[in-house]
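Let us walk through a complete example step by step. Step one is to write down the protein sequence. Step two is to encode the small molecule, pyridoxal-5'-phosphate, as a SMILES string so that its atoms and bonds are unambiguous. Step three, shown after the inputs, is the structure prediction itself.
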Amino acid sequence: MTSSVRSSDLQAPYRLRLPGPTAVPQRVLQATAGPVVDHRGAEFRTLLGDLETLVRPLFGTTNPVLFFAASGTGMMEAALVNVLAPGERLLVAVNGQFGERFAEIGRALGAVVDVIEVPWDKPVTAADVAPWLSRASYRALAVVHNESSTGMVADLPGIGALLREHDTLLVVDSISGLGGLELRQDEWGLDVVISGSQKALMCPPGGGLATVSDKARAVIDRDDRMPRYYWDFRTALVAAAKVETSFTAPVSLLAGMREALTMIHEEGYANTLARHRRLAGALRTGCAALGLAPFGEPSAWSSTVVVAHVPEPLKGGDLVRYLNEHHRTAIAGARNRLQDRVVRIGTMGQIDAGTILTDLLYLEEALVALGVPVTRGAGVAAATRYLVEEATA
Ligand SMILES: *Cc1c(COP(=O)(O)O)cnc(C)c1O
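Step three: the predicted structure of the complex.
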């Protein structure tokens, strides 16, 4: 094998290029390293107030924002225990692994779950949902904003408009969307939106967020919902109104989150979103030039994750392993029905053109080493052309 670049020889920095967790900027890491403050003291109250002000524009809401120590899955469960009662009906739109998880959590909790099966290479749309609403009385519809397993973005404006005329609540997992994809909770009529710290918010894992509409709150406030204690949004909402959290908050993580949100607003949130879109487009174009064709319907391609087909007979897992071993670069394969058929690379957080051009250089190295015919330099060249055209468009 002839390799022009061997990052392992250079002791190159570890490159976390997953669709979450994502690389945490130095500024954010440093903010997490400050003193742990009293979670009932003035410093923390200021921090929590700042966080709410800084994150609301990303959700597109004036609703209260709740903060929990939790992974994203914890917030999915939290959303469901608060809106559902045992035996109530939950509708879940599934076009990937995280949609499947929503359905599994619903079943585990004792809800009656109906699944709208959407092809994994297509987005969830209002047309998929509409026929179901007349079949039964659903307490909630759960939808994944950005299906990280497939890179398909749901049509939330369309689905939100459809549900406005129904009692059914719209519960949205925007764990890999918030901060990297447009989200307008109030305008689109989304009732509960949940997210996590470790994706486009470029923080360490372990921070969960939730926002709650008035329509959702009327349901959440009922005493007949699922058994809940730590996850109880009623107490969390009362605490939030006093700029507090119900229990000990992950104060260090939240100090980092304030820094990350400050960075986003310094860039200008619209610019942040445009950068995500541009870099995802460039990476996708570069991957295609290397023979890794983009997965799924182009109109629904995500700005926060690039999902690409792996040409047979190569296995996605081999590509992932090669990049880890030779370039200290962590990309993702699939742990579902797409196993070994796709690879996934995050385009979230603190990334720039250099990040994705490096990805493409290393991908090319890996493909050559694994015996896949590629035109040397094709990926970097195609991505560069894309970026130049975008800049001059
Ligand atoms: C990452 C992710 C989750 C799960 O989050 P964990 O923090 O791993 O529990 C759920 N939904 C989506 C869309 C995700 O991207």
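Step four is interpretation. The first helix runs from residue 7 to 10.
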